[in-house]
Design a protein that fits this description.
Blueprint lengths: L4 H4 L33 E9 L3 E10 L5 E2 L2 E5 L5 E6 L2 E5 L2 E5 L6 E2 L4 E9 L10 E3 L2 E3 L7 E6 L5 E3 L4 E8 L6 E8 L2 E6 L4 E5 L5 E11 L4 E3 L3 E6 L4 E4 L2 E5 L3 E8 L7 E10 L3 E5 L2 E4 L8 E7 L5 E8 L6 E8 L4 H14 L29 E3 H18 L3 H14 L32 E2 L12 H8 L10 E3 L23 E6 L11 E4 L1 E2 L14 E2 L6 E6 L1 H20 L7 H13 L38 E6 L6
Parallel strand pairs: 13-20, 22-29, 31-36
Antiparallel strand pairs: 1-2, 2-9, 3-8, 4-7, 4-10, 5-9, 6-7, 10-11, 12-14, 14-17, 15-16, 15-18, 18-19, 18-20, 21-23, 23-27, 24-26, 24-28, 25-27, 28-29, 30-32, 32-33, 33-34, 35-37, 37-38
Helix pairs in contact: 3-4, 3-6, 6-7
Length: 654
């Protein structure tokens, strides 16, 4: 390694990670730390994800006393034939039915009222009863406690309110194991709106801004456990408005379809809502519900508007439902050929996916990877998204353009992805220091977490990067145009790595870039280390999270991004078909600018077709035996699992 590496610790092809896209939270320390002399007061929450022949156990140890627990050993026993496979956030072992977990060093200190988590994977057959007793440092704890069940009962999903009007929030909460509910918090996404400590749990909020909101209730019980409800999506309008659902509708030739309208706010007198086609395909017309009356008593009860398609012609039309003193509601109705059953079903599904009430998108319009609060996959909770989710959004909007001829949504999806998921110049500020002839320093990929940190090996030769110059010449920049693969959409982790910011922290409300890397060959959400993409050593240890992965004398504060090439390739593929379909419609120019961006992304995807260290492909055993590439002879023309790049945050360090 050259002297400059001591300042940057990373280069374009970042090697501080042994294997990207997931890294385990496992053990860095072995051996136990003596327990506190004072008696331990503790509780252990035990949760499982069981698939019949195996399960993962998630255990949360809470210090219920007033003294610090400085080093812990957890012990418990199973009644069946559960057998330990592997563990994380601690050193796990099993003897017969008895299980012992020693702290991992970095999580050995538990202050009063605080908690730490550990977990493991087991196999079994037959029954899988939860353990009955747990002990910390030999002292029995409250065990097997389940978190409360929380349901947000008000408002209704999809409800629309006028700005300044009170939004009624209400929740039910039930505690387990003789515990009681101590409080229920109400959130707008991750912003706390208020707290109620007595049932029935409710809150009235009038401060919500115009736009979409994701509301959540979180209950806490007397034993310290907590759980959140499923989010409920609502919309706040600038004033009284007509509400239409869905806003997209497909109708085959000779058939009819319906959508529903209602009012967002109770009127003081009767209100008449008139619906008519205002533009577009004249083969579509209102045949029912052209004039609907809403009273002060039925204003929130939906009534139907029926639209009928004639027997010939295709194309979209806009229908507007208007009322005096109210903002109008617009619905796009597309007439489809009689044989286009698939297109009609697609538009029906499209309406459900894009309906804010269904919770698939954040207030910024970012597609969530999932709506669950716990996911046993690469992301670990529903507040995250992936470059994969963005690529599927591009496919969805490309299909919408194919069916309707409207390409604005496809272009908007690419712009959204570019804004939030492709690092800006401010996110990757030191690419100009990249030396293509020394693109990386070798770090071995070891088999198990306890073998880490991996020592960087300057004795292993690496090849040169043959495309960096081509890319700079073509696009006039050193910056990489590719999606980072993982994002904390609502900054739940609190790193605050929103586009253009480095570790802005928990107060940052925008989407935050995060990494989650594995050590060893395993890939599981239970074995990953979530961390910021911009590691300024604010979080983690002395050197942030870097000491978990590579053994080095010193580190620079640094930024690092990882690309999932399959997702970028999917985005490029969607753009290819959008280009083809738009040209078939005579609308190629509508997508040409976006297609040009996709071509650029495809150029950077070539990094995924080279060996990680730009070594030649061939039959060689061991890193030293594999010769360094001297050009494009390091390319194997197959897409790899990832490519990664990074540098120092100090703009003078490189």
């Amino acid at each position: 390694m050259d002297p400059g590496r001591k300042r940057s610790a990373v280069r374009r092809v970042w090697t501080a990670v042994a294997t990207a896209l997931a890294l385990p939270l496992s053990l860095l320390a072995t051996g136990s730390t003596p327990a506190q002399a004072a008696p331990v007061q503790c509780s252990v929450d035990y949760k499982t994800n069981d698939w019949g022949s195996g399960f993962t156990a998630d255990l949360t140890i809470t210090n219920r006393g007033t003294d610090v627990i400085d080093g812990w050993t957890l012990t418990y026993s199973y009644a069946g034939n559960q057998r330990l496979s592997n563990g994380w956030n601690g050193t796990w072992s099993q003897s017969g039915q008895s299980v012992t977990v020693k702290d991992a060093g970095y999580n050995g200190r538990i202050t009063a009222g605080a908690a730490v988590s550990t977990g493991a994977q087991f196999s079994y057959s037959g029954s899988n009863a939860a353990p009955a007793n747990f002990a910390i440092n030999g002292t029995s704890c409250t065990g097997a406690h389940q978190p409360p069940i929380t349901v947000l009962t008000s408002p209704a999903a999809g409800a629309v309110y006028s700005q300044g009007d009170a939004v009624p929030l209400a929740a039910t909460a039930a505690a387990a194991d003789s515990a009681t509910i101590s409080k229920v918090e109400f959130y707008d996404d991750t912003t706390l709106l208020g707290t109620d400590t007595t049932a029935p749990y409710s809150l009235s909020v009038s401060s919500l801004t115009v736009g979409s909101h994701s509301l959540v209730a979180k209950a806490y019980d007397s034993l310290g456990a907590s759980a959140s409800s499923t989010p409920v999506g609502i919309r706040v309008a600038s004033g009284p408005t007509v509400v239409a659902t869905p806003t997209q509708l497909g109708i085959q030739q000779g058939k009819s379809g319906t959508y529903e309208v209602k009012l967002s706010k109770q009127p003081s007198a009767n209100v008449t809502v008139a619906t008519a086609r205002t533009s577009g395909n004249s083969g579509l017309s209102v045949t029912g519900g052209a004039s609907l009356t809403f009273t002060p008593s039925n204003w929130n009860t939906a009534q139907k508007v029926t639209v009928t398609a004639d027997s010939s012609g295709t194309g979209a039309a806009t229908f507007e439902s208007t009322a005096s003193g109210h903002a109008k509601a617009s619905v796009t109705v597309t007439q489809l050929a009689a044989a286009k059953v698939y297109d009609a079903r697609f538009l029906e599904l499209y309406g459900k996916i894009t309906n804010p009430a269904n919770g698939y998108f954040s207030p910024e319009g970012i597609p969530y990877h999932s709506v669950e609060t716990l996911i046993v996959e690469a992301p670990d909770h529903g507040h995250e998204t992936t470059s994969e989710a963005y690529s599927y959004l591009l496919w969805l909007q490309a299909m919408y353009g194919k069916v309707t001829g409207d390409w604005s949504k496809f272009n908007g999806a690419w712009d959204l992805m570019e804004k939030y998921m492709i690092p800006t110049k401010a996110d990757q500020p030191t690419n100009s220091f990249y030396n293509a002839s020394k693109p990386a320093t070798y770090a071995p990929e070891l088999d198990t977490p306890n073998e880490y940190p991996a020592k960087l090996d300057t004795g292993v030769s690496v090849g040169s990067d043959p495309i960096a110059g081509e890319l700079k010449s073509a696009y006039g920049t050193d910056d990489v145009y590719g999606m980072h693969w993982l994002q904390d959409v609502d900054n739940v982790y609190g790193f605050g790595n929103s586009p253009g910011k480095c570790e802005a922290g928990p107060s940052d409300t925008g989407p935050s870039y995060i990494n989650t890397f594995q050590r060893g060959a395993q890939e599981s959400v239970w074995e990953t280390v979530p961390q910021p993409t911009c590691d300024a050593f604010t979080y983690g240890g002395k050197n942030g999270y870097l000491d978990l992965f590579t053994g080095d004398a010193s580190y620079a504060k640094q930024w690092k991004f990882t690309n999932a090439p399959d997702a970028d390739a999917r985005a490029v593929q969607a753009a290819y078909w959008a280009d083809l379909w738009a040209k078939e419609q005579g609308k190629g120019s509508a997508v040409s600018a976006t297609v040009g961006k996709a071509a650029k992304m495809g150029d950077y995807l070539r990094y995924s077709m080279f060996d990680k260290y730009f070594k030649k492909v061939g039959n060689c055993v061991g890193p030293s035996a594999c010769p360094a590439g001297t050009g494009k002879d390091a390319s194997f023309y197959l897409m790899s699992w990832y490519y990664a790049w990074g540098g120092a945050t100090d703009t003078s360090a490189g």
